[in-house]
Amino acid sequence: MATVSPENTWSYTLNLPHDPHSARIARTTLRSVLVSHDRDELVDDALLLTSELVTNAYRYSDGPVELRVRHAWEAGIRITVWDTNPLVPAPFDTPPGSGGIDVPADGTYGRGLLIVRLCADNWGSQTFGGPASGAEFRGKLLWCEIGAKSPVAQLAA
C-alpha cells in the first residue's frame, strides 16, 4: 500500500545541554533553518517563541533540552521543546481557548509561556513519566504552531 505524504516536508532536531547559552544557539539554528526553507516571514515570531520555550526548559529543568522544528502544513511550522521536568507550567496546563491567565504585574517571572500562548496559532503539551510513575524516561513536550493559522486553529475559530 502506498503512503501519501505532503511534498517538501522537513524536520530538524537540535539537542541542547542544560546551559544558559542554549536559547541563543537554538535561535541561531532556527533562523538558519527557516531562511534555508524560504520561510523568512516566520523568523521573528519563531525566534521569540523558541527563545521563550527553551529558556523555560533551562530555567525549570535540570537536564538536556531538545528542540524540534518541522514543516507542519503548507503555511506553517511546529516548534517543539522537550525537557526533563514532567510538570506542565501555567499557562500550558489549561487547553487553548480556556480563558485568561493572571500574571502579577510586579512579578519577575511567568510571562514567557504567556507570550507563547498569545502569539502562537495553536499550542499544547504532553507529559511523560513523573514522580509517581517510576519511569526512567520522564519530561514534557511544550509545542506551538505558527504560520497562516494552523488548520486546527482555523477550525476552533
From TrEMBL:
Regions that span the bilayer: none
Protein name: Histidine kinase/HSP90-like ATPase domain-containing protein
Domain Histidine kinase/HSP90-like ATPase stretches: 17-121
Keyword annotations of the record: Kinase, Serine/threonine-protein kinase, Transferase
UniProt GO MF annotations: protein serine/threonine kinase activity
Originating species: Streptomyces albireticuli
Alphabetized InterPro entries for the sequence: Anti-sigma-factor_SerPK, HATPase_C_sf, HATPase_dom
